[in-house]
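pinned: reference chain
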Amino acid sequence: MTFIWTSTVYSLVAFLILLWLLKKFAFGPLFGIMEKRQSLIADQISTAEKNRADSEKLLAEQKQAIQAARKDAYDLIEQAKVTSVRQADEILAQAKEEANRIKNEALKDIENEKNKAIASLRSQVSAMSVLIASKIIDKQVDEKSQQELIDQYLKQVGGNV
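pinned: its C-alpha cells
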C-alpha cells in the first residue's frame, strides 16, 4: 500500500510539474496569443463601427447636399420662368406701343395727304369755277348750251383729278 501512496504522490508531483510546465510554456503563450487576438478583434469591431458611423454621417451629409442642390436648381428654374414671363410681357408691351405709334403716324400721314388732296382739289375746283364763269360770261349762251359747257368742263375736271 505504500507503493500506491508513493506512486500516487509521484504521479501527483509529476502532474503538478507537468501542469506548471504546460502553463509556463504552452498555456501562457497560447492564452497570450488568444488575448492579443481578442483585443485585435475588439479593435477591428470598434474601427468597423466607427467607420460605419462615419459613412452614415457622410451619407446624411451627401443627402443634404443633394437636397440643397435640388432646391437651388428648382429656385433657378423658377427664377428663370419668372424672368422669361416678365421679359415676354415687356416685349409685348413694347410691341404694342410700337404698333400704336406706327398706326398713329400712319393715320397722321393719311390725314395730311387727305388735307393736301382736298386743298389741291379746292384750288383746282375754284380755278375751274372761275374759268367756267368767265367762259359763261363770254358766251352768254342759252340753257342747253350752258349745260353742255358745264358737262364738258366737269369731264375736264374729272380727267385732271
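why pinned: The helical segments are 2-139, 143-160. Residues 4 and 63 are 81 Å apart (CA to CA).
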